[in-house]
Amino acid sequence: MTLVKILEILAILVGAFSGFIEARSKKMDVVGIFTVAFITAFGGGTLRDILLDKRPLFWVTHQEYAILIFLLALVAVPAIRTLRRIVSAKLLVTADALGLGLFSIVGVSEALSAGMPLFIASMMGVITGIFGGVLRDIVCNEIPMVLRDGKPYAICSFAGCWMYLLMQQAGVPADFSLWSSALAITVFRLLTWAKDIRLE
Amino acid sequence: MTLVKILEILAILVGAFSGFIEARSKKMDVVGIFTVAFITAFGGGTLRDILLDKRPLFWVTHQEYAILIFLLALVAVPAIRTLRRIVSAKLLVTADALGLGLFSIVGVSEALSAGMPLFIASMMGVITGIFGGVLRDIVCNEIPMVLRDGKPYAICSFAGCWMYLLMQQAGVPADFSLWSSALAITVFRLLTWAKDIRLE
Amino acid sequence: MTLVKILEILAILVGAFSGFIEARSKKMDVVGIFTVAFITAFGGGTLRDILLDKRPLFWVTHQEYAILIFLLALVAVPAIRTLRRIVSAKLLVTADALGLGLFSIVGVSEALSAGMPLFIASMMGVITGIFGGVLRDIVCNEIPMVLRDGKPYAICSFAGCWMYLLMQQAGVPADFSLWSSALAITVFRLLTWAKDIRLE
User: Fold this and answer.
1) DSSP letter assigned to residue B62
2) ipTM greater than 0.90
3) Do residues A149 and A195 lie in contact, with contact meaning Cβ atoms separated by under 8 Å?
4) Which of A116, B131, C30, C145 could lock onto A111 through a cystine, CB 3.0 to 4.6 A?
């Protein structure tokens, strides 16, 4: 199994988790919660595959992904209820930041290996990174996180995607550039959120 | 004409009708109303066809569907104005419940005949069933019905899709399983709505 | 370069500009502003290409479009801040009306040359014309302009698309019918907006 696949599975789990948290706070029923988690986890990658015209979609050939999220929904819902009391909004922002980093880098890497030019690949990374969360927020009738708090968001993904692209051009080993740039996006986003840094 | 095609046409008519009602209450102009009806009627099936990569889309090869809805828009708008005075919100919930049942079962059946595995087919059914209504509500700036009233919604579609899939596996005649599971979804949704049943 | 291509580039520029204005008023960071501009400029055409199954997408083969919008974002943001003080909401409505006209006619013309039947082509025009703006408004958490002010909107696009289709059938030179019907949509929309004309 390649590192990209592992990162994708991690991204799906984190995306589903942030879907659970937000859907739960809207008092949706268990299938509603699952549907929101499913949309958040697979939305970005599905858009990427549609834009690149890759079929069958990755979650069609791997139905175990969808079943896994369904089983997680049954377990996670009571768990989140307990967790929320302790950590409040921080949990959602952290899960969302992890998802932003992982989805962006998987997106840019898939776009690059599909032969997209560099700038387009970076945009595909940003779109894949933010789209699942935007869908989650729109379906849950929230202002998308990309503009909710007025702090850097899309720019973290954009910077990380270019960090990845430049490392690839410079001949850095693929595994290292994948991990490190995904991590960089997450850390950058969490730092600007915690320190209340604003770009204006 | 197969039963699936008939159910699809019924679903389109019901979907368009729920679009008329909601767009009308937003005081949109007649083409705006038509556009919302069009999106509600064809949104779920279009997403299903894009996910399954089926082209040309069903409403491209059958332009009579779109023309029919356009003609209905001219007739239905004054009719709804009168009807609404009598039945209020009930009409929208009923039309939406009928659409949920019909679209879900058409979706799961098309996904199955496109060779999708069972669990994916059930998810396609749920997505096709709820997507048109979600689009309608998002475009009309309403909270999607899937979470508006806190009552079972997606789970009705999910249960009905599995009822259909199990009947198919058990060798029940296709026509009977199509009709009965679409009906089951609609009745299930309307019952939980009327009796104020909540899953928590 | 054909006239359709020129109109498309104009539409992209105008669409991006209306995205800048709205994202700016939401205090998004520079990449957020760029992303909204990107979605507004390419959303309608991307949906059209997906519905027509045309790949690669036009903004993938022309990465200079995306780069142009990125550079414009850097320049336009301070410019808009100054402009807004003078012209307020009028600027957004004007940019949106220009985009409506240009995108609609490019959409109907591409659908026609892809062999779509007339009525479907007119619907593709309307969808391409309004979709970018609807996406822009949804991502920015605004009520879509198509229903924001209760004045004719979709119907302007619809009328202009049929004006184009009828001119084509009547053998009017393509260039003239392209320009004039795009202009007609914009003028029609701005007139009804300025004169406060309502269809009911």
Assistant:
1) -
2) no
3) no
4) A116
